[in-house]
From TrEMBL:
<keyword id="KW-0274">FAD</keyword>
<dbReference type="Pfam" id="PF01266">
    <property type="entry name" value="DAO"/>
</dbReference>
<dbReference type="GO" id="GO:0008115">
    <property type="term" value="F:sarcosine oxidase activity"/>
</dbReference>
<dbReference type="GO" id="GO:0050660">
    <property type="term" value="F:flavin adenine dinucleotide binding"/>
</dbReference>
<dbReference type="InterPro" id="IPR036188">
    <property type="entry name" value="FAD/NAD-bd_sf"/>
</dbReference>
<dbReference type="GO" id="GO:0050031">
    <property type="term" value="F:L-pipecolate oxidase activity"/>
</dbReference>
<dbReference type="GO" id="GO:0005777">
    <property type="term" value="C:peroxisome"/>
</dbReference>
<feature type="domain" description="FAD dependent oxidoreductase">
    <location>
        <begin position="10"/>
        <end position="365"/>
    </location>
</feature>
<keyword id="KW-0560">Oxidoreductase</keyword>
<protein>
    <submittedName>
        <fullName>Pipecolic acid and sarcosine oxidase</fullName>
    </submittedName>
</protein>
<keyword id="KW-0285">Flavoprotein</keyword>
<comment type="similarity">
    <text>Belongs to the MSOX/MTOX family.</text>
</comment>
<dbReference type="InterPro" id="IPR045170">
    <property type="entry name" value="MTOX"/>
</dbReference>
<dbReference type="GO" id="GO:0033514">
    <property type="term" value="P:L-lysine catabolic process to acetyl-CoA via L-pipecolate"/>
</dbReference>
<dbReference type="InterPro" id="IPR006076">
    <property type="entry name" value="FAD-dep_OxRdtase"/>
</dbReference>
Amino acid sequence: MATAHRKLFDAIVVGAGIQGCFTGYHFAKNKKNVLLLEQFLLPHSRGSSHGQSWIISKSFFEDFYTKMMEECYQIWAQLENESGTKLYRQTGLLMLAKKDNSEFQDTLDTLSKQGVEHRNLNPEELQRRFPNIRLARGESGIWDPSGGVLFADKALKALQDVIRQLGGVIHDGEKVTEIKPGYPVTVTTTTRTYQAKSLVITAGPWTNQFLRPLGIQLPLQPLLINVCYWKEKVPGSYAENFPCFVASVPELAPHHVYGIPAGEYPGMVKVCYHHGNQVNPDERDCPSASPDLTDVQVLSSFVRDYFPGLQPQPAIMERCMYTNTPDKNFILDKHPSHANIIIGAGFSGHGFKLSPVVGKILYELSTESLLSYDLTPFRMSRFQSFDKASL
Ligand SMILES: Cc1cc2nc3c(=O)[nH]c(=O)nc-3n(C[C@H](O)[C@H](O)[C@H](O)COP(=O)(O)OP(=O)(O)OC[C@H]3O[C@@H](n4cnc5c(N)ncnc54)[C@H](O)[C@@H]3O)c2cc1C
């Protein structure tokens, strides 16, 4: 039987992925007693936040994300200072698409309206600047110099260190098994029972497992993502003069293809498909979890067409998970019946860069503080299929 812990925490955060850690960071910064509970021993690679390099940039079709990125860059820089760890490498981000592509135009609009430095590159300029990319379908480019690489694993470790230095508590290897709503909210794990004034659920692809007993189910779809690395034919040819990129090529694939210059594995560029197959998060690493490799075939065609200097078969394949919502926007909201239970979920493959502000918003929701951002795009009530039947 789980033993009871005496202290009343200001908040318990379930899940020490990047969103849970940034939530914990904001609680700790504001001198609140916070406890983070993580089912696996840290560090681990079983969720969505592990890896050496994730993309950061200000380029979005939706202006609300671009607005949030201003503060995200500041908090990432603050964390670099506090931890004494370099977490960001500026490479620029290139958006590659035909100039009549609606996402291309929307991104240009957003960057212009928000006053974000960028350049619209015609095919000739693009080709001159990046001779190692073949513009297979006559693409143009948007150049966002703020783009770059976030060192994800280092960021998680830095955050966890700073949270502890600020007095926050992190218990790993402790799986949450039950949540009893109320004031205080009671949380039982495999080893103990805790109480807190509020609870934040940032459990990534596992989120709905917690919400079922709390009477709601959100339209969250865990997807298995094959993370593919492609070998340079000539070592170094895609390392220096090569940016992070996002390509929209509807003729080839309904979802984006994105990539990151060679870094974590010398001589290998990371090129991934922004979609995957449905998966049960507890079975992600079973050999039978995803026999369908259509995504990898799409990537092979893309690499063959656009990167003549890369081998068109992946040299390494790893696994990660997205948790997608139907509109690919996040869910940042309170439980409809339990105001001290806050949910941060559905980061749809683009949540890492935004996590500094996501954590701030989840903190503000938990503490009934004035909200720094308009949360209309993130409310769960936007979904028709949001299931409150059993409330
Ligand atoms: C291949 C890939 C590439 C990506 N690239 C980018 C990118 O370039 N840029 C970008 O901004 N974003 C990117 N993302 C998205 C980003 O990584 C995610 O949005 C983000 O990591 C989500 O974090 P999270 O904390 O919500 O989830 P997670 O990292 O999954 O964390 C949830 C945590 O909850 C824990 N948990 C679950 N159940 C329990 C329980 N019962 N008890 C205790 N703990 C529990 C889990 O173990 C896990 O650690 C990428 C994602 C993938 C998979």
